[in-house]
Amino acid sequence: MAENVAGGGALSGAAVFVRPPRSLWGDAWRQFRRHRFALLGAGVFLTLVAATLIGPFVYRVPIDDIDFKSVLKGPSLAHPFGTDELGRDLLARCLYGGRVSIAVGIAAVSVAMTVGTLIGALAGYFRRLDGLLMRITDLFISIPSLPLLLLVILLFRETLRGLLGPIVGIFVLIVLVIGLLNWMGVARLVRAAFLSLKEREFVVAARSVGAPDRRIIFGHILPNALGPVIVASTLGIGAAIITESSLSFLGLGFPPDEPTWGRLLFDAQSHLTTAPHFAIFPGALISLAVLSVNYIGDGLRDALDPRRSAS
Amino acid sequence: MGRYILRRLIISIPTLLGISLIIFLILALAPGDPMSQFAANPEVPAEVRERVRASLGLDEPIPVRYVKWLWAMLHGDLGFSFSSRTPVLGLILQRLPQTLWVLGTANIVGILIAIPIGVISAVKRYSLFDHVSTTVAFLGFSVPSFFTGLVLILIFAVQLRWLPFIYDSTVVVTDVPSFIAQVRQTIMPVVVIAFFLGATMMRYVRAEMLENIPQDYVRTARAKGLDEGQVVFRHVLRNSLIPVITLVALSIPHIFTGAVITEQIFSVPGIGHLLILSIQNADTPVVMAITFIFALLVVLFNLVADVLYAFADPRVRYG
């Protein structure tokens, strides 16, 4: 296991006489499968993603069908998740809302991962940039993200709404702000990996044949530094989903007609005594999504970090 | 030690300046200006508006405004709230006790639960207790606090009617019944925060214990005939708690942020509640002040963590 992680590619040539070649990712998958909760988490998360993507096409109840005859009704055959304060079907709203919540999570993490990887790679590779970039990273770590997030959304919401429309505008704003306030962990991980990897033989070899910096960074070092980035970004998806839901829960996220899970909870808050189902379904879905993503991250950490799987 | 603290203090000054600059620039570059509500009022003639802008210093270039703002902040002048027309500092100080009361209690409860469970979990690794407690801890830091809070309200306030639904800020502790009322209304917010905090900390204590148990000094302690209790509590636990001190110090600012949501759910009239209220009222001076105070807390507790760490672990070099 250990020597395989150290040089999967180099070993495969010599291993002809012993066993079929094993790759880092193959080993990681084998390790990941052993983590039962991680597998379960992957199953649950994929189901949630599939349900929110395909669900609205299968379960064809409109999300904005107002029906004052059945307001705040509990789960029934006609409405499996019950109805909200305007008699709209909660299952349809939850399915549709999950799409937005999960999309925000994945998009925000993509932003964070890109920025973090870039800054970490530059700081770890070029000694001249290291001091400055790490100071900036430390600065961002000290920024209290929730108040700043609220401040930025308060100040820029109207402008982006005017530029890109009410839904796309707030989506872009939330994704950018969550992403730009959460890249620091990834940057530190990537920098640490770069610092140790750039002295290795394969990098020295690549440099000796005249490979340009760009190819050494992206072609040689980065693929070997991806493990911790993948773990961090998986856990980041859960955190981003919570952040988006918190914003909507505080009434500062998406507009009221756009039902995200957090927004549904915000609306449900004023009907807790009469319609507990209204709060429980979206809340349970958020928790389930974050829990499953975190278990996937836990499993990936065990699978991709040789130090941990050994212990 | 004194020199180390001094050096760390000096290092944190640029960080604070940087944060203040970021907060200021966000506000200065934001579309519209802090006077937008006033400006939208058709009763106010344009010339008056310009005069007010000038008197508030909004005509001056951004660097000048930044330096003036920073200078005032350094003197403890956080400005005036737009909506309540009182000094921001007073508003914050008035809210602070509620936040500190809830957060402090939650912190203590979280630590008191997390350490023993983490220790038992690590000592009896792979036992049923370990599996149950790690799973519960995983739930604790995955389930968002607003949902934990709503579930608690549903169970204990709506269904069982054991605890009050909403936090009543008018309760003043003067005698035993009012103290009981205060405790009763604090239980749910404290449980929500302590659950999250304890879960994170329990995982950390457990991991640190597991790191220390196979070490040589532990074998030495056993070899010289100490009983298992002494080995665990006198040797392993003490070494494992050093990084936990850091974690506690570093997590305090995050708890303040997390408390924003908890305070909102239970209507605890603390700083977080004030923050949300000010955002809804577009009361930027208050929002800026609270954001900066949170940043100050992060930097301060980073410093505290480093100093405590150097104090608790003689291997850390300082000087």
Count the E strands of chain B.
Answer: 0
Largest interface: A-B, 46 and 48 residues
The CATH architecture of chain A would be: Orthogonal Bundle
Number of domains of chain B: 2
Average predicted confidence as pLDDT of chain B: 81
Rg on CA atoms of chain B, Å = 24 Å
| Coarse shape of chain B | globular
Structural class of chain A: mainly alpha
Tell me roughly what share of residues is in helical segments of chain B.
over 70%
Q: Quick one: CATH class of chain A?
A: Mainly Alpha
Order of helices and strands of chain A: HHHHHHHHHHHHHH
Number of domains of chain A: 1
What is the name of the CATH architecture of the largest domain in chain B?
Answer: Orthogonal Bundle
CATH superfamily of the largest domain in chain B: MetI-like
> CATH topology of the largest domain in chain B, anyone?
MetI-like fold
Describe the protein in words.
The complex is a heterodimer of chains A (311) and B (319). With 311 residues, chain A is mainly α. Chain A contains 14 helices and no strands. In chain A, α7 packs antiparallel against α8, α11 runs parallel beside α12 (261-268) and α12 (261-268) packs antiparallel against α13 (276-304). Chain B is an all-alpha fold. Chain B folds into 2 domains: 31-77, no CATH class; 95-312, Orthogonal Bundle (MetI-like fold). Helix content of chain B is 77%, strand content 0%. In chain B, α7 (145-159) packs across α8 (176-212). Chain B is globular. The termini of chain B are close together. The mean pLDDT of chain B is 81. The chains are: A mainly alpha (311), B mainly alpha (319).
